[in-house]
Amino acid sequence: MKKRSSREINIFSMSALDLFASALGAFILLTIMLFPSYLDDIKNKEKIIELETELEEIKKRIKNNTVQLDSKVALLKNCEASLSSVAECTKQQENLKVKLKNCQQQHQSCLTQLGHTFLIVVLKWQTQEQDIDLYVIDNKGRKFYYKRHNRNQAHYLGSLAELSVDTKVGPGIEIWETPSAEPGIYKIYADLYDRVGLPDNPVVSTSLYYRDGFKKLPQRTLSAEETLVLIAKIQVKKNGKIIIH
After folding, report:
1. Are residues 121 and 165 in the same domain?
2. Which of 55, 57, 58, 125 has a Cα at 20 to 30 A from 179?
């Protein structure tokens, strides 16, 4: 009599095989489904590495730029200091220009003053009691003598020239002066105003003082009363120089 085979064992064996096959199929299916995502993860990791590399490069650039920026800032500060120094120098230069202009004006004023000369005519005589008068005719024809001495501009308004000393009794001295002689010819005369009965003919000595020194003018002997005797002609040049004729 034949024995019946166990169906439960066969059924269990087939069920296990089906289970394993189903699991393998599911695994393969999941693998196929997840494989693109895995590839994406790999690509993302590579991208992250690339970005991290770029980030490090950017950090290096930022660091270099920061160093350069600090250098530029320092240079800018130096430039600002230099500009401040230049501004100060410019201000000093302007002040020096003003001072130079003032000096030039003063120099020109000095040259103008040097172009003029003062004149002082001193006439002397030694004879007793006699009265001798000094006459000066300036470049404009104005006559200075005892009647028109022009002290305090009494006779020639605007003229500072004057017969400042007038002696009436000898021995005596007479002085004519001007602080600024204009260019032209000045004539110097002596006049024996009063002999007072004395026989002696007086001799007059005349000196001329001016910017560059003094000169003795020729002596003159006066023999006739109330007669003008020319002592000298004085030429004043534009530069203040003196020529005696």
Report:
1. yes
2. 125
